[in-house]
Amino acid sequence: MYGTIARWRVQEGKEEELERLADELTSQQVPGSRSVLFYRADNDPREYWVASSWDSREVYHGNARTPEQNARYERLRALLETDPEWHDGEIVASR
């Protein structure tokens, strides 16, 4: 399995809109996606973390190159204060 953990900083006043978009995106079935978790930080309600897991590195990167994923990203990016931080890697253990 492969995955990513991202850090997002939402624009002030856009928190609810981001959470609605997150709910919409997590309801979509993207081929090869195993899980997606959205977190809002306790100490900063404008900071979010997202963890996702995928069947493989190839599936993850293949999805990133699709026009559909680009459209999802553009909708997300419009709500963020800065570009997301991405931390990709092989998942070595999970439950």
Explain this structure:
The chain is of the alpha+beta class and 95 residues long. It contains 3 helices and 4 strands; from the N terminus they run βαββααβ. The chain has helices spanning 15-26, 57-64, 67-77; strands at residues 2-9, 33-40, 47-54, 85-90. It has a 4-stranded antiparallel β-sheet. It is globular and about 35 Å long.
Beta-strand residue percentage: 25-35%
Number of domains: 1
Separation of the first and last Cα atoms = 12 Å
Helix content: 25-40%
Radius of gyration over C-alpha positions, nearest whole angstrom: 13 Å
Strand order of the largest sheet: 2-3-1-4
Report mean pLDDT, rounded to a whole number.
96
Overall outline: globular
CATH class: Alpha Beta
Helix tally equals: 3
Helices and strands, in order, run as EHEEHHE
- CATH-derived architecture: 2-Layer Sandwich
Q: What is the subunit organization of this protein? A: single chain
| Poorly predicted tracts of residues | none
Number of strands: 4
CATH topology: Alpha-Beta Plaits
Backbone structural class: alpha+beta
Q: Major sheet, described briefly?
A: 4 strands, antiparallel
